[in-house]
Amino acid sequence: MKGFKAFLLRGNVVELAVAVVIGAAFSKIVDSFVKGVINPVVGAFGTKNLDGYAWCIKSPCTVVASTGEVKAGVAIAWGSVLGSTFTFVMTAAVVYFLLILPMNKLNERRKAGQPEPAELVTELEVLTEIRDLLAREAATGRGSVPAPADYNAYNKSRQ
User: Fold this and answer.
1) Could you give the CA distance from residue 70 to residue 73 in angstroms, rounded to a whole number?
2) Single pTM value for the model
């Protein structure tokens, strides 16, 4: 039970649940916008309700214009697909311009205020530096580096 609780309280799961709830409510707003604004603009060139548009592939076709339901024949209801496409594009545009773009700009500002992380030194570079230091000390006649127990005495003798 503790593992399940930890899983649920992890940041990603909670954020995902909030996103699903907000997305469900938001989709109704976008759907209303498409039906109230986009469809009337399209209706200036045809009809306000796109659900009534269909292509008949087996006659006789009877399509109810208000619902897009096929009463007789076989029809491809491309109008409802077009309406759903408008809804999807509007939802994607609003999510991108009102959520994703501002969050990306906020993250860029946060990163701009922070210094770049220091370059990590690899183990090979450290070992190479130690080797070169030991070689230099041996060449100058300073002797070798003392054992850790003698280090304090070594430092006092060098002063």
Assistant:
1) 7
2) 0.48
Burial of 35 (0-12, 13-18, 19+ CB in 10 A): middle
Q: How many residues does the chain have?
A: 159
Question: What CA–CA distance (Å, rounded) separates 51 from 85?
Answer: 12
Which residue in 80, 77, 50 sits closest to 63, CA to CA?
Answer: 77
Q: Degrees (nearest 5) of the Cα angle 73, 79, 82? A: 145
- Beta-strand ranges (E) seen in 8-51 are none
pLDDT for residue 151 is more than 60? no
Token readout for 36 is 């109230």
Alpha-carbon distance of 118 to 86, in angstroms, equals 48
Contact call for residues 97 and 89 (beta carbons, < 8 A): no
pLDDT tens track for 69-122:
777 888 888 888 888 888 788 778 877 888 788 888 988 888 887 776 677 888
Mean pLDDT value across residues 21-35: 81
Of 57, 87, 81, 59, which is closest to residue 68 (Cα–Cα)?
A: 81
